[in-house]
Structure formats: C-alpha cells, structure tokens
Amino acid sequence: MRLISANVNGIRATARRGGLTWLGAQHADVITLQEVRASDDQLHKVLADTGLGDWHVTSAPGRTKGHAGVAVLTRLPPVRTSSDIGPVEFTDAGRWLEVDLRGPDGPVTVISTYVHTGEALTPRQDEKMRFLDAVGSRLETLAANDGYAALTGDLNICHSADDLKNWKGNVGKSGFLPAEQAHLDRWVSDHAYVDVHRALHGPGPGPYTWWSWRGKAFDNDAGWRIDYQFASAPLARLATRAEVGRAAAYDERWSDHAPLTVDYDLDLR
C-alpha cells in the first residue's frame, strides 16, 4: 500500500501548478488531501480534468466556502467512510475524514486530517486543543484490538526541535507549544502509534514539509515538519519507506507543503 498525504493549499491552484499530475504519476493506492478548499462538485471536476476522475473519491468540505476541506482518493472502493470525530463543534468543519479499506486481516482505516493553525493564548488555540483532544480519543478507539489505522495530514505541530529549522525563534508560538507536542507524545506512549516518517528516516533536523512562500525560506530550507503519517503499531511494523516530495526548485512547487509518501508491506483487497 502506497499512501501519499498532501496539503494542496487549494485543489484548483494545485491543479494549475501541476500537482495533481504529479500525484497521479506516483503509483499510489491511497491519496489523502488537506486544505482542498472546494465543494464536492468542484473537487470532482478538477480531478476529472486532471486524470484522477476514475479514483474513488470521498470528501469532507469545510462549512465555510474556500476554507479547510479534506479528501481521500482510493483505487479500490472503500467499505466505510465517516467525517464524525465526535464533538458537535467539529461537524462539517472539513478537518476529519476516515475511510476503511479491505486489508488481508480486516479493515485498514486511513484518516485525512487538517488540524487548526491556532494562535497562542487566544480562542483559536483553545479550539485547536479541543480538536486535538478529540483526535486522541478517536485514535485510542481505533488502536483497540490491534487495529490497522493511519492518521495522515497537516497537524500544524512540530513535535520537537528536529522538526523546525528556527525553533528558538518560535518558542511560545502555536505549532511549537509543549502542550501541543504533549498530544503527539500521548499518541505514541499511550496508544502505541508511530511517526513512521521519523522512524524510517532517523533523527533530524528535518526533512521539513512546509516552507513559507515568502522570502528565501524554501531556498534556505528554513522549514517546518508539520505533515505526518502516524500509524498504529501493527501497521507501523509494515512501513518500509518514507519520502518527502520536496520540489527541485522554488518555481516547481505546487503547494507551500510537500507531499509525504509512505510504503507499507500490505495488500489491499
């Protein structure tokens, strides 16, 4: 199973820049998207126009036009889909989508999530923390009975200083707060999830997955690693390769994020 996660920063903009052509050429089995920023009709039209129209597409648009939105594209038909993470305040927020696929030993749950950006010491940060609470509860349920699950997407959190080039300059800012990092710690320690990208790559710094469009951030590799694939323990044991699809040059970028590809030694049915 080749699983690619990508924050497209607007599906139509990514299509214009060639991102969907790139994704379609990667021999993926599952593609998860974040910040789609499109209605269902708009998403299906863009995919059809760029050669991905024959995939099975499940999406959860954001309730606010042009904001958020997640999707999962699969070559095989899903057996279950859900955008319910629990709390009513996140219903129709376009930040959570689960798709179950048939695996050799039962369902394989793939999640596309887009966690809030947040802003320290504001209601926006409080909302982000409530969402992370809900994510942790759902991951605990999915990990029960040794289930296969992969949480993919833009978490808007750097787990450690290895994940942020200018970590000293971001102390106390959203995305690098100890309270945020503690959530990821609990996923690992309490629920046995594995950050498969870091596990396969080894220690940092980097590789990063997001760079500002402004200035020389991309050229200087002054980035953040905020896009992840956290796999439950049984699935993590099957991860064999992880790679960040960083563009060769600034003018070849199709998003401010780079896609994250992970290969798992697992056959979907």
From TrEMBL:
Cofactor note: Probably binds two magnesium or manganese ions per subunit.
Active site location: Y114, D154 (proton donor/acceptor), H257 (proton acceptor)
Site residues, Important for catalytic activity: D227
Top-rank taxon: Bacteria
Keywords annotated in UniProt: Hydrolase, Magnesium, Manganese, Metal-binding
SUPFAM superfamilies: DNase I-like
Residues holding Mg(2+): N7, E35, D154, N156, D256, H257
Residues marked Transition state stabilizer (site): N156
Molecular function via GO: double-stranded DNA 3'-5' DNA exonuclease activity; metal ion binding
Site residues, Interaction with DNA substrate: H257
Cited PROSITE patterns: AP_NUCLEASE_F1_4
Listed transmembrane segments: none
Single GO BP term: DNA repair
UniProt xrefs under InterPro entries: AP_endonuc_1, Endo/exonu/phosph_ase_sf, Endo/exonuclease/phosphatase, ExoIII-like
Protein name: Exodeoxyribonuclease III
